Amino acid sequence: xxxxxxxxxxxxxxxxxxxxxxxxxxxxxxxxxxxxxxxxxxxxxxxxxxxxxxxxxxxxxxxxxxxxxxxxxxxxxxxxxxxxxxxxxxxxxxxxxxxxxxxxxxxxxxxxxxxxxxxxxxxxxxxxxxxxxxxxxxxxxxxxxxxxxxxxxxxxxxxxxxxxxxxxxxxxxxxxxxxxxxxxxxxxxxxxxxxxxxxxxxxxxxxxxxxxxxxxxxxxxxxxxxxxxxxxxxxxxxxxxxxxxxxxxxxxxxxxxxxxxxx
Length: 263
Prior knowledge:
Elements: E1 6-10, E2 16-20, H1 25-34, H2 39-51, H3 54-63, E3 68-71, E4 74-77, E5 80-83, H4 84-96, H5 101-111, E6 124-130, E7 134-145, E8 154-156, E9 163-174, E10 180-190, H6 194-200, E11 205-206, E12 213-219, E13 222-229, H7 232-244, E14 249-253, E15 258-260
Parallel strand pairs: 6-11
Antiparallel strand pairs: 1-2, 3-4, 4-5, 6-7, 7-9, 8-10, 9-10, 12-13, 12-14, 14-15
């Protein structure tokens, strides 16, 4: 049974197992329940998942061709060594919304030798579309710029003004305390809705220009594309509007094609 709080699964002998929605095991647990496995085998896999929550991240990374290892105070993502406290929240957030660990590895590589202790737990990434290299992660931030700023303008740390814009920074300095200091970036768009912008900045990664979370409506012809958003809250509001008409709705993370929880 799925509720706003998470999943409750009843075992073969009536035992209850709960997976909280804000726990990294939640998405992995849903994936197990969707597999065509005997009920007893599903139950064993769920118990194993709860006993070792990081297994959810191991399996998730494996699906994207990456190797994830728990080494105590540090984590290994392929060849990148990461501070557990600094990086685990970002990994969990990305996994929870159907994102890809590949872009986290790319971001770590972009930060270079200082990546390990970088304070990345609550950051948002913007995936810049590079024609040669594909999607490349930049640091997404809200910055006050001159009102004349336009999409595509290049700005640096000296660019200041009074109008808020979303900026994708590709040149980032990791300071001695681990804080990220943006050096140079590209203007994405002017902020028009502060609440939606706050939620966009709470996402682990976006495509920008309202392309990240695609709402779809179920029909006799299959799933039909509706609106797309960078704010997950906005996507969920739109999905609720679709459901209110009596139709089925789902949200797809367009970065990976993975479904995202409606709650």
